[in-house]
Amino acid sequence: MDIEKLKAAIAKNIDSSSQKLGELSQKIHDNPETAMQEHQASGWLVEFLKENGFKVEKGIAGLPTAFKASYGKAKPVIAFLAEYDALPKIGHGCGHNLIGTSAVAAGLGTKLAVDELGGSIIVFGTPAEEVDAGKATMAKKGAFDGLDAAMIVHPGGGNRVTLNALACQTLNVEFFGKAAHAAADPELGINALEAMILSFNAIDALRQHIREKARIHGIITDGGEAANIVPAHTAGTFIARAQDDAYLDDLKVRVLNCFTGAALATGARLEYHWAPERYASMLNNVTLARLFQNNFESLGHPIPIGEDEEWSGSTDVGNVSQLTPTIQPMVGIASPHILIHSTEFAEVAGTKKALHIILDSAKAMAMTAAELLANPNTLSAVRADYEKNKK
Ligand SMILES: [Zn+2]
Questions:
Q1: Is the CATH number of domain 3-165+280-390 3.40.630.10?
Q2: Ligand 1: distance of its center to the CA of 312 in Å?
Q3: Which residues have CB atoms below 5 A from the ion given as ligand 1?
Q4: What is Dmax (Cα atoms) for the chain?
Q5: From ligand 1's centre to the CA of 202, what distance in Å?
Q6: Per-residue pLDDT at 312 exceeds 90
């Protein structure tokens, strides 16, 4: 079959399942589950994939709500990444119900290309994007080894193919001081809150002298018990972010110095731990991005590549992008003033209009996959772009 005919057939195939896909998205949307608790959502996605002839392994990489659904056996291997975790209280304020749905829809569409051209598809269920960097754990355990490309779309307030995401790592700290009456015996106390406040001030001072795109931010989660007790314990959570892993390593040392310095100044004892997983920075594959751009635009959605766009937050898709050519296009389902991680965005993520746009982006991912399976030269160009980025 000629590639344009194949693409049309892919789009038609996704359209013919649009009602089922819509129900799937709605079910996940209406039953939000937070990080690592996504038992229903992953179950529903797995059920859909099994019904459509995918071979499924559940609980991969030691994560009960992760899965790997394969179709076909041969190389090249194209992956679609499903996310489905919700936010506490806000529900699907990041629209991950749509991400899960688009990944299985793209898998369904690409089956036709695999039947026609060979190669294989894997739809990965990747839990806990929001807090525990599920993909980082999966990457470390080798789940993404041997892939030729990976794609995922993310709903947002506008269209653009590339995403400039920062590397980041979370730091949890505690200070242990000594309680005393704040007025009667202050000289006998060791003030854990002063240690925390000094740390904030030290970070403020540090912030003036770090690279522009780097970020350090945090909150106090325990600030003491009562105003008349010298605080014996305080706790806080901080996040350090940087444009690349090397600078993040450097920044982590300097951030930690702020806390050790405060401990020394106050006499409070510091305990800290860095989160076991880091969100890696995003390596954008512009060659792959152009293919997606072409296909999404052919469906009537203008989308810029957006290479020079502002830097945003962080995503564990970055960890996948370090291993294989990857794109994460942002697909506009809401007006730009509706921000992700808000209840307003959660509402939009449950609408028919959002579903329609997201299914078009799934078609574009499947069409892009078909091009990679159809033409070894296209695949090598994508690979070359990845090799260049890695350097
Ligand atoms: Zn998200």
A1: yes
A2: 12
A3: 94
A4: 87
A5: 31
A6: no
